[in-house]
Design brief:
alpha+beta; 4-stranded antiparallel sheet; Phosphorylase Kinase, domain 1
């Protein structure tokens, strides 16, 4: 959307999105913005709300942030992973509502859906004419999905905590980083 030369993102949520969940998500964005992690803050409506309701859909508008850092190739994904780690580390310490912790959709998967969900996405990736290293990365994602689904996850923690332990996660991360060099 464009108005007076400014660009905006209009996000229309599915009917499963609740006002409580959206409020928690927006609170998380505000928290991250105060923690020096770039985040666009929703623009208030005329009545001061940070979203509008149209039919059974919640709608929010935020400033468009111009960037050339689209996560559209492996090098950019590698560059973006440390920021993603920082986001998760900060959010781990942030107290949010119960609705903020339990996403009904988006990037949450029920345990029985982990393997099929990951395999569906890695099949899509493999259609991109991957290099051998990228194919290995997709294979690793499939293997991790199986480990998680079978309860064989060896380590848990934030990126920083796992790297400090110098265990399997740190070794896997280092090996993956070598693929990009």
């Amino acid at each position: 959307m464009k108005d007076d030369g400014k660009r905006y993102v209009v996000r229309v949520y599915g009917p499963w999105q609740t006002t409580g969940r959206l409020a928690a998500m927006q609170d998380n964005h505000r928290f991250l913005a105060t923690a020096d992690i770039p985040h666009a803050i929703p623009i208030a409506t005329r009545n001061g709300s940070s979203w509008a309701t149209i039919g059974d859909r919640l709608v929010e508008v935020e400033p468009y942030v111009e960037t050339e850092a689209n996560m559209d190739n492996w090098a950019r994904l590698e560059a973006g992973l440390p920021l993603l780690g920082r986001i998760h580390s900060r959010l781990r310490a942030y107290q949010t509502t119960a609705e903020g912790h339990h996403a009904p959709a988006s990037n949450s998967l029920a345990p029985e859906d982990i393997v099929p969900g990951v395999q569906r996405e890695t099949r899509r990736l493999r259609e991109w004419h991957l290099t051998d290293a990228e194919r290995d990365l997709a294979d690793t994602a499939d293997e991790l999905a199986w480990r998680v689904s079978e309860g064989r996850l060896l380590e848990a923690g934030t990126h920083d905590e796992l790297m400090a332990r110098s265990g399997d996660y740190a070794a896997m991360f280092a090996a993956q980083a070598e693929w990009y060099r």
